[in-house]
Amino acid sequence: TGEFDTVQSPSTPIKDLDERTCRSSGSKSRGRGRKNNPSPPPDSDLERVFVWDLDETIIVFHSLLTGSYAQKYGKDPPMAVTLGLRMEEMIFNLADTHLFFNDLEECDQVHIDDVSSDDNGQDLSTYSFATDGFHAAASSANLCLPTGVRGGVDWMRKLAFRYRRVKELYNTYKNNIGGLLGPAKRDAWLQLRAEIEALTDSWLTNALKSLSIISTRSNCVNVLVTTTQLIPALAKVLLYSLGGAFPIENIYSATKIGKESCFERIMQRFGRKVVYVVIGDGVEEEQAAKKHNMPFWRISSHSDLLALHQALELEYL
């Protein structure tokens, strides 16, 4: 199944990816089981893996900050930049306050479970992250070197505890980030989201339509590969209400290893029998898709998102 043409434009939907249609077959409970256990066994009924880019594909963020979105679509540049800066502040605030970004910025991982083997499974309900000495040890010894050489067993266990807590928080609040933010910040967040949606002509709403179609199918799965570091990427996913579409185990950060290596990890995980479809706006994911003979669906405008949604509705994809 490796002989697919790269799709140059969504005006030519990928009709013949595979003779099997990606129809939601089987019971609902099986679909839900997939989300709770996002690593399906090799003999599962998984047929298609949709590998998404985040910025400028699902969400408009970076191009707000640079002003390029405003230029392209004739919007007010200062307003766009202000909205981008407000969202950026909210992302890093969430990452620092709740997701240990101060501790983990220099200890970035590709995937949430990458250090789980160092976790001894102890109960963290009364554990004091603030006083366990992790941050001081990390900054004094520069323990998170890019080479992967890191601290001792005790320190690695504390690192693993932080990633476990991040995972718990994500799973608890993925459909209710307002509950984590608290009333005042929740109102500010809802207001900001509404303003961004208005300025971007419902970009995210359109992307979410496609994501939810895929999520409801028992034989398809959404995977996210982003160049954002893992912790801020999780903050973005939560603040843009994407937690329902992406189980935390399906989120990969390409900051350290690049998208092509992430794609290889994803293929090792889901196997070679499934069809991979890459959806993105950038050259890096397009080239990585080409290298692995994965069809690529380019998103560069609202019409591309609408065409993607239509192709999914008609079950071409």
TrEMBL record:
Its EC number is 3.1.3.48. GO terms for biological process: cell differentiation; negative regulation of extrinsic apoptotic signaling pathway in absence of ligand; positive regulation of DNA repair. Mg(2+) binds at residues 53, 55, 281. GO terms for molecular function: metal ion binding; protein tyrosine phosphatase activity. Its main location: nucleus. Coiled coil: none annotated. GO terms for cellular component: nucleus. Keywords: Activator, Developmental protein, Hydrolase, Magnesium, Metal-binding, Nucleus, Protein phosphatase, Transcription, Transcription regulation. Belongs to the HAD-like hydrolase superfamily. EYA family. CDD domains: HAD_Eya. This is Eyes absent homolog. It catalyses: O-phospho-L-tyrosyl-[protein] + H2O = L-tyrosyl-[protein] + phosphate. Residues 1-46 are annotated as: Disordered. The lineage of its organism: Eukaryota, Metazoa, Chordata, Craniata, Vertebrata. Binds 1 Mg(2+) ion per subunit.
